[in-house]
Amino acid sequence: MSQSHPSGPGAVPPDPLSGLPGIREARTMVYAMDSWTVEVQKELTAIPAPSFQEGPRGERMAELFREAGLTGVRVDEVGNVLAPGRPPPKSPFVISAHLDTVFPPGTDVKPRTVDALIRAPGIADDGRGLAALLALGRVLSSVELPLPFPVLFVATVGEEGIGNLRGVRHLFRNGGPGRDARGFISLDGVGLDRIITGGVGSTRLRVTLRGPGGHSWTDWGLPNPIHTLGRIVTYLEELPLPSTPRTTATVARWGGGRSINSIPQEAWVEVDLRSEGSEALERLVEEFTRRCEGAVARIRVPEEESGKLLQLEITEIGRRPAGATPRESHLVGAAIQATRACGVEPQLTSSSTDANVPMALGIPAITLGAGGKAGGVHTLDEWYSNSRGPEGILRALYTLLLSG
Q1: Going by C-beta distance under 8 Å and a sequence separation of 6 or more, which residues neighbour residue 135?
Q2: How far is CA 207 from CA 210, 223, 224, 226, in A?
Q3: Nearest 10 degrees: Cα torsion 10, 14, 16, 19
Q4: Which of 32, 133, 206, 325 has the least C-beta neighbours within 10 A?
């Protein structure tokens, strides 16, 4: 296989599958439909899709799957859009992108082109992934390629924070169409170098303290939920966190109180605990819970006022399993080879994506960027540049073919 680099943006990368029937036609098709791919990316981005409200975008995705030549298209019970072919495959290779965005209802998501950049919230994450998924569907339904396994195309719901991976969880549930998958690729965002082989696990907790409240002067001395939450936040900052596996603890949001001259009756804080290791994450959750309980136990009031102690409630508001696909796996090797064929040195890394769920189940899984460049992701200033966009689609196609 030739390892020469492309001569510049838009140049055809070397073919790692030289001699494979149909590969030249497939590669030519990816470049020929580049403008179509970008237009579909903009069209889908313009359809608002906050987590739990992906329906309209999912309906359009189903139509585009059918237009791409895919068969058996359906929307499942939670809103995932599946294109499994007919008959539905057994032990498929699953390739996916996610429908939802982090942006709330009412956000202006209409793309606009400014100085050769396409600007819109969600244009890269995951408008690009969805467009690349459709492009791959068009190629595989149009060109005879010797795939040794069936492919299941899926546009998932609930990948972003509050969605808690609900779409991919449903896909890989017991008896679900992905549970016996032989492999999984998530197309998420942009770029050509990163191969996400580690799934960062997370537990999101909401800590709520409730008390009697009262007047800031006449009732001063009664337990104050915000004062105690301040201690809890300090404890979290002081927690020893291992560097291997990398583990983090973040205070994400907090609030409470009703007026400037009142002792609050309620206050709350939300924390995001993460780790590349499942055991390290569980230890962190246990230690944080213990310190929350200790902070409340430190409060002292006269025995006759024992009913005025604070009440602690810790609620889990999100959980993502940790996992990993080994560097030695056939799928990771295929992705490395495909990345180098695009003239890029691969970077193996960890993140939190739809691939977490199959990784945790022991199914070979990775996440790839779908080409192009981006900035301002998860902000209103998000932008996309189609520099080497087609190569992102080719990298995914090569990875799929080399995984056989």
Answers
A1: 30, 33, 36, 37, 40, 393
A2: 10, 16, 14, 11
A3: 110
A4: 32
Burial of 125 (0-12, 13-18, 19+ CB in 10 A): buried
- What CA–CA distance (Å, rounded) separates 340 from 55? 37
Q: Is the pTM of this model over 0.85?
A: yes
Q: How many Å apart are CA 153 and CA 133, to the nearest integer?
A: 8
- Summarised one tens digit per residue, pLDDT across range 345-402 is 999 999 999 999 999 999 999 999 999 999 999 999 999 999 999 999 999 999 999 9
31: its two tokens: 């470049």
152 bridge partner residues: 94
H/E run at residue 347 = strand 347-351
Phi and psi of 187, rounded to 5°?
-95, 105
Contacts of 307 (CB under 8 A, 6+ apart): 212
Residue pLDDT, tens place only, 259-298: 999 999 999 999 999 999 999 999 999 999 999 999 998 8
Q: How many residues does the chain have?
A: 404
- Cβ-in-10-Å burial (0-12, 13-18, 19+) of 300 comes to exposed
Scanning the structure block, which residue is given the tokens 């189903």? 62
Map out the domains of the chain with their CATH numbers.
Answer: 23-199+323-402 (3.40.630.10), 201-320 (3.30.70.360)
Q: Give dist(CA 364, CA 164) in Å, integer.
A: 21
Q: Which of 260, 371, 367, 269 is nearest to 314 (CA)?
A: 269
- Sign of torsion, CA 28 131 64 367? positive
